């Protein structure tokens, strides 16, 4: 096998294989760029300024991820040649070392990547140079070549998942808001205008909206559980929508004003999406801080998930 234990190098690879892989990568990239351009043009023709700005943020995130990938690819070997003492390499580990090797590979026989059926030989494409370089000095790599590769994948998945999660939330919200369009059309009927006539006095505790939100769902601690399960079913009912609509009109407009509350909420959702979809610098530092404190035995990923709940309880 030419190219050593890491596999064949590029000069030993058939040209048709290299050309095929490059063609697929180029076609996928061009198709993605063309699709984003068409989507931006569609937002512009529909006069959706907030959605177009959100799309520009997604493009910026893709460019940032490409630059990060380039830095990790170029710096993979130099980073692995940064040597640290074996004692420092065994401090603040996120997982228990495999095979009882607490030094992180100080004896030069670490199992970086094993493949069954291959006589247990170590395979790591483009790897091992920096690791062996530090082993000869009696030290360990700051991050091994395999570790840099896994970090590369982790950062990429983290950013992509954030964008996908934001887009999925936006899509599900728009899907649920389609029901509200029918309720908004009902507000133009004479029956609704008669029912919401300000001259018809009604006690607050007699309304359907108040009856729905009083009782057990209003108990502190219980209402968060109720709200969690209610979001999967009828989080906003017809009476909730009409009550919020009437309250908004009474607070900001004249009582008998003609106003499309559903369209207003849709625009507000798009404005919020424009802010949420971007990965800001503080968010990157939060991710780095979580990586720093993710030490074995602390249960970081468990207790840190309760921070938003505690913060919400204090605000309420």
Automatic annotation (TrEMBL):
GO terms for cellular component: membrane. It is a multi-pass membrane protein. Its main location: membrane. Keywords: Membrane, Pathogenesis-related protein, Plant defense, Transmembrane, Transmembrane helix. It holds the Pfam family Mlo. It is found in: Membrane. InterPro entries: Mlo. The chain crosses the membrane at residues 16-37, 58-75, 151-173, 273-293. GO terms for biological process: defense response. Belongs to the MLO family. This is MLO-like protein. It comes from Panicum virgatum.
